[in-house]
Amino acid sequence: ASPLVLISGPCVIEDYKTTYDIALYLKTLTQDLDMPFIFKASYDKANRTSVNAFRGPGVKQGLEILDAVKKELKIMILSDVHQLSEVEQASQVLDIIQVPAFLCRQTDLIFEVAKTGKTVNIKKGQFLAPWDTANIIEKVLSVGNERVLITERGTMFGYNNLVVDFRGIKIMQDTTGCPVIFDATHSVQLPGGSGKSSGGQREFAPILARASVAAGADGVFLEVHKDPDAALCDGPNSLRLDDLGPLLSQLKELKSII
Amino acid sequence: ASPLVLISGPCVIEDYKTTYDIALYLKTLTQDLDMPFIFKASYDKANRTSVNAFRGPGVKQGLEILDAVKKELKIMILSDVHQLSEVEQASQVLDIIQVPAFLCRQTDLIFEVAKTGKTVNIKKGQFLAPWDTANIIEKVLSVGNERVLITERGTMFGYNNLVVDFRGIKIMQDTTGCPVIFDATHSVQLPGGSGKSSGGQREFAPILARASVAAGADGVFLEVHKDPDAALCDGPNSLRLDDLGPLLSQLKELKSII
Amino acid sequence: ASPLVLISGPCVIEDYKTTYDIALYLKTLTQDLDMPFIFKASYDKANRTSVNAFRGPGVKQGLEILDAVKKELKIMILSDVHQLSEVEQASQVLDIIQVPAFLCRQTDLIFEVAKTGKTVNIKKGQFLAPWDTANIIEKVLSVGNERVLITERGTMFGYNNLVVDFRGIKIMQDTTGCPVIFDATHSVQLPGGSGKSSGGQREFAPILARASVAAGADGVFLEVHKDPDAALCDGPNSLRLDDLGPLLSQLKELKSII
Amino acid sequence: ASPLVLISGPCVIEDYKTTYDIALYLKTLTQDLDMPFIFKASYDKANRTSVNAFRGPGVKQGLEILDAVKKELKIMILSDVHQLSEVEQASQVLDIIQVPAFLCRQTDLIFEVAKTGKTVNIKKGQFLAPWDTANIIEKVLSVGNERVLITERGTMFGYNNLVVDFRGIKIMQDTTGCPVIFDATHSVQLPGGSGKSSGGQREFAPILARASVAAGADGVFLEVHKDPDAALCDGPNSLRLDDLGPLLSQLKELKSII
Asked: Does B161 touch chain D (CB under 8 A)?
């Protein structure tokens, strides 16, 4: 059986130092656990709930920071793109290019990302049935790129709430043949639930992460922050960096049984 | 009370002749009914379920066709944009620029569209609570554009199904002050429900259209086709052009009571 | 086309005087409108959210009050049963026996009610698809009773919320051949949403009632109270008695167009 | 940490021999695993989808069979009640009395069951939020019975489908203090999904069972049959008896890590 993969980092690049520190912490932690690790941070949060929310350093400065961290630490980097015009630049730096959940049905963006030849991480839309990811994967394959991950991040359940259907992990693995990553921190968001931003239930992220590994997930995606309550984005659902070690050990142990 | 507005046309521009014929038919029909009318057709279906689906003539040729129809018939035109790069071109031709439901949270696209000064039609995402449209409207207002419509097109209800919450029309009118249009034909889609394309339940569109007017909608949005079963896009949920007249008369009568 | 039917009354029998006064008010109002009317009140709220909630006068005293009101005003009476042992007694007084939504799958209760030969009103469970009512109707028919109504009262939508799927009215009419009543006041409940009781959104009941008639409902079910904020049950979703007249006139006018 | 509890047996009592054989198999299996075990079988399926479905031997003969099995094998027995009149009889034989999901809001039934002093297993309604179980538990406690279990069996998700919200296990444990059992086989039902009966997705039951243990469930509830495809009730979601051993070993191992 393949080892559990970790995709982790802060929601958004706040500055070089913070980004580097988190990446270094995660690299060390996962090396000790012998766990494959990909660093994740966004340079632009292009779909924030409110017009006044912090969006990040933007594509140019953001990619520079990610490139510097990558070279310094020799780690793999994942980030997300939102415009056709960003994709080429992003592919110079990133190892895995992520298509955001809201954009997972935008055919041209999928094509542009797939054509880079980089690994593509499709975030499954909150509005999509598990079996409907097969049509998206086919779009990636149609341009000759076979390196695809699917990330589950919950499904709309009434208003301002998400639910994770753990049958979906198996369904997506079986219908697409792709590894399925479980995004435990976005799955506990309460979309729009705080008025001007999305709320979150950080306390449930470890529980759902454990459930996902037991249900057969190939990897977990966890947003972290040194001090989540002070985070500029997605604080309510981010995990404290210091709490990550014990959780990862446990997830690794669970994976060994499945 | 203001009169009921109709936004109608084929899902996608198939060619000039078909587009012109439908527009002429609708213009004549709505003139007879004294009903304000805006013609709608898309030049690019950028988020089709499958990679092999027909997408339309593209932005350049599509806008040329719309421009010709507009000048010939002297009617208002609405179409949707999917990329920042399309917006300026589209604003040369369109009277109302529509932001697709899947893209209603893309802040930059909202800004770009709003800055044209044209009327903006925000399609409410299938994943959004009615009250959460207020944050989107605020993005439009923040660049000084106060001409905004919201279009309801159903909310995810389990997998491959939508439900219309008619409380939402009032909620959106009250929280944003914007007119609310009800898209009866997309609301009866079964997203992804036909495997390689979305299914639809055309037979329920008139029922929901009637319910929406009784519930206080300011306008209705109805996709039509001369022969829906032969349509290149959204046939399963499009109405037959010949069935439109009696429905519109009835909707107008309902509106007069509310 | 058959006229719109009204089923209305207080949620629970509070005492004889209150019950009589409301019934008289409704009888007079519907006579003026020439609208068929059935009086509804419950003698036992057997499934209140909390153990401490008011439940009503009970089966014996409740049926006595309903019988007195019936004889005094010469009106038809509907109430609901919850135990096999109540059914025979209830059938002595009631014209229509209602099976509560939570109990709509209890085969023995359906049989017992159906065997009385009285008209049966099946409240569609909040957990049921419209097409699944056909199996329930078949249970009624199987004992030789063909007088059945189905009442729509909303479907679970996430937690502590209901949504009305107006496609369901047509679906149930077509699959069962039964008249479909729309319960506008229970459809705006927020189940369990107030902690110790269900909340409600009274302001949306007239909107949904209008939508239901436009969508083809055969009748509406509206709980009313002289002073809903002081009601002992379902106050948050009950309508003020004084507001009923204008609403009913409008519903009647809408029905005439459909 | 307390050991994982197993509640298991056939959906319905088909006859003495079948019931005894399954109980013996399960007793032996769980003794080998040192896993606390409660045998479950229903004597009456009072809420079958269709009027023609098999319902079981009924309360008298069913309880006799359960009593004989109990005395022969010296095991604990759980079954469900549907009428007030059954409760006293059932309490003579059963160790745990279960309140069915559809009936979890029937106050009198809860009282009657709670008053027996037996352990009460409340099946959480498919229409209930996790936090709303607290009001039900309070009804049990109000008559002086503190021995209560809650069983999660999925929540309505659109039509003819259920989803399990694994946040709910923790929410119910925290708000009620009761052990929470996860019913993996009813959670994979497709209610009404086969027209005249509920469908099921047996293949997902082990996956969800594993997820539930990882998410902190105190026990699992698994319906089994020697030959599920020939079962008279709930075959589509029952597990094959022969597949149970390896699953239980794995669940026990998962529990030891949590």
From this structure: yes
Q: A10, exposed or middle or buried, with CB in 10 Å at 0-12, 13-18, 19+?
A: buried
C186 CB-side CA count, 13 A: 24
**Cα-based torsion angle of the residue sequence A15, A17, A21, A27 in order, rounded to the nearest 10 degrees:** 80
Rounded to whole angstroms, the Cα distance separating D65 from B18 reads 73
Q: How many CB atoms lie within 10 A of CB C67?
A: 14
Q: How far, in Å, CA of B36 to CA of B57, rounded? A: 28
Q: Which residues contact D147 (CB under 8 A, 6 or more apart)?
A: D117, D118, D119, D120
Is residue A48 predicted with pLDDT exceeding 90? no
Asked whether the predicted pLDDT for residue C76 surpasses 90, the reply is yes
**What backbone torsions phi and psi does residue C214 show, to the nearest 5 degrees?**
-60, -30
Structure tokens belonging to residue C148: 């059945």
Subunit contact A207:D216, Cβ cutoff 8 A: yes
Q: Which residues contact B69 (CB under 8 A, 6 or more apart)?
A: B16, B19, B20, B23, B39, B75, B77
Query: Using CB atoms, which chains have 3+ pairs under 8 A with D?
Result: A, B, C
Residue of B155, B156, B159, B160 to mutate, interface with D, max D Cβ within 10 Å:
B159
Architecture of the B5-257 domain: Alpha-Beta Barrel (3.20)
> How many alpha carbons fall within 13 Å on the CB side of residue A76?
15
How far, in Å, CA of A188 to CA of B205, rounded? Answer: 35
Give C257→chain D minimum CA distance, Å: 31
Report the distance separating Cα B180 and Cα B217, nearest Å.
Answer: 6
Contact present, A142 and A101 (Cβ < 8 Å)? no
Q: Which residue has tokens 């000064």?
A: B117
Task: Give residue C185's Cα distance to chain centre.
Answer: 9
Q: Which of C58, C56, C62, C123 is nearest to C92 (CA)?
A: C62
**C214 close to B (CB below 8 A):** yes
Rounded CA separation C20/B197 (Å): 57
Give residue D50's pLDDT: 83
Rounded Cα distance, A105 and A103, in Å: 5
Interval A23-32: pLDDT, tens: 999 999 999 9
∠ CA C155-A103-B234, nearest 5°, is 65
Give the residue on C whose Cα is nearest the Cα of A163. Answer: C158
Cβ-count burial A179-196 (b if 16+ within 10 Å, e if not): bbbbbbbbbbbbbbbeee
Say yes or no: B125 contacts chain A, CB-CB below 8 A: yes
C95/C124 Cα distance (integer angstroms): 19
Alpha helices in A156-234 (DSSP H): 167-176, 205-214
pLDDT digits (tens, 9 = 90+) for D105-124: 999 999 999 999 999 999 99
Q: Enter the tokens of residue A113.
A: 């990302």
**C-alpha angle C182-C185-C187 in degrees, rounded to nearest 5:** 65
Q: Which residues are CB-neighbours of B177 under 8 A, at least 6 positions away?
A: none
What tokens were used for B185? 């034909």
Check: CB of residue A168 under 8 Å from CB of residue A152: yes
